[in-house]
Amino acid sequence: MTDKYAQLNKAKRLALACLVFAAGVFVFTVLLPKFYPNLQGAWWLGLIKMASEAALIGGLADWFAVTALFKPIPAQYPIPHTNIVASNKSVIANNLSLFVKEKFFHPEAIEKLIRDSDPAKGAGRWLSQERNATRLSRFICDAFAGVLRVLDDKPVKAFIAKTAQKGINQLDLRQLMATSLGAVTKERQHQVVLDRVLGKLAKLLAEPETQIYIADTLVVWLKTEYSRIEKLLPSSWLSEQGALIAVKAVSSILDDIYEDEHHPIRHAFDEQVHEFLYELQHSPLMEKKVNSYREKIVNDPALNTYVQQSWAKFHQWLLTSLEDKMAKQKLKCRVC
């Protein structure tokens, strides 16, 4: 309560100081031409005089009105219509509550107001005119572009990063992974992934660079492990033949796996995937690992960097789009 009184006294002193200042400025503008006749009729002095006079009259009127509302005006003769609030508190409260209830919060009054005004129809009629629609869109684009130009990016980036971290922390990553993997295995899409991996490996083995790499590796291996054989037979020939044999053997195995839907490797791959899915759903150790991965993601500076870069790109794209839109509208207006 003491703070309220202190705030009230401070407001009173401020209002009184403003009133005294306005009165001082008014007196100054009245007396100044008497000492400096050449300023008589100066337009800027007249503006200052009118502003100070208006402020003085308005302040005195408001002072009297507010005082008359809450206190009786001391005078030799009683002034009617003073101390209004204290004398009519109950009447004012009842009338105000009844007015608000009937005019603002009554359902029928609200429905009637909306039905009579039909704001949607009025807005649609106004926007149906191309000039109005263009003016509104230009205003929105100008305002939005201005906001983007003066907007401080740091709080926005911090908010987005904090929101992203909070969302990742609240995310049940293990359940999400289990549900996604379960959907993939249910549709046997993991076998499609395996087929693509097999195709990529077969294509990689067919490339000359890969065969040369295998041959070079065999040369090094022969010289290291079987140096006597390397002395009897040319290592380059052995490595080339060995590389061809290895490529053919591996390619044959890959083709068998690719062509045979019931190949043992496919069954083993199925078992590994289902085993991983089961551990993901029921293993406490797997849950601990997933949670540790999530903590690493949240605390990784790369996440904050990615968020900041994404916002910067989006900010620049949005600003460029708005400026292009504004330029097109201005050009259209000039042509029209």
UniProtKB/TrEMBL annotation:
Keyword Magnesium on entry: no
One of the Pfam families matching this protein, by short name: DUF445
Positions of transmembrane segments: 14-36
One GO cellular component term noted in the UniProt record for this chain: plasma membrane
Keywords assigned: Membrane, Transmembrane, Transmembrane helix
Keyword Lipid biosynthesis: no
PANTHER family referenced in this protein's UniProt entry, alphabetically: INNER MEMBRANE PROTEIN (PTHR38442:SF1), INNER MEMBRANE PROTEIN-RELATED (PTHR38442)
Protein name, per record: Secreted protein containing DUF445, transmembrane
Organism: marine sediment metagenome
